[in-house]
Amino acid sequence: MERSDIYIICIEDEQEVLDAVVRDLEKLEEQFPIETATSAEEAREVIKKLLADGRKIGLIICDHILPGDNGVELLIELHQDEQTHPSRKVLLTGQAGLDDTVRALNQARLHHYIPKPWTRQELMEVAVRLLTDYVIEHEENILPYMSTLDAEKISESIRTRRSISDE
Questions:
Q1: Domain residue limits at 26
Q2: With 104 labelled, which of 29, 40, 74, 87 sits at a CA distance of 20 to 30 A?
Q3: In sequence order, what are the residues at sequence separation of 6 or more whose Cβ sits closer than 8 angstroms to the Cβ of residue 78?
Q4: Does any domain span residue 116?
């Protein structure tokens, strides 16, 4: 399986938690490289470098409590940036209060909220669903993603695309 230029970014300041998130997503890493950051500032640097290298950010999984800017502020900022606007955004936290969560949903157009502690199955299901949607929306050739992502949804999209272009 070929690695794509679509990255997953995981932002979490607690190393054990960050390691657990990456470990839970390891099946996706064969195709979607995973980059990590332990602060909002480090995340900005990682994202800036990837974008400068022509890479895409398909999925951002971010904790709320971070050194410096919090995760909700970072997700809002990334939503407002045209280069990361299409990225799927997940808030993974045990700390965000209702006000912060509502702000993330409304201003960062959060795609999913996962409370800590999470299960590997839940995290994988959310990641697969969001990356599938991202790939269908932003990639020309989606066939290579079929073995990793939601094959049924991808094949349906391929059939739909073909029927539109055949008319």
A1: 6-120
A2: 29
A3: 47, 60, 84, 85, 87, 89, 108
A4: yes
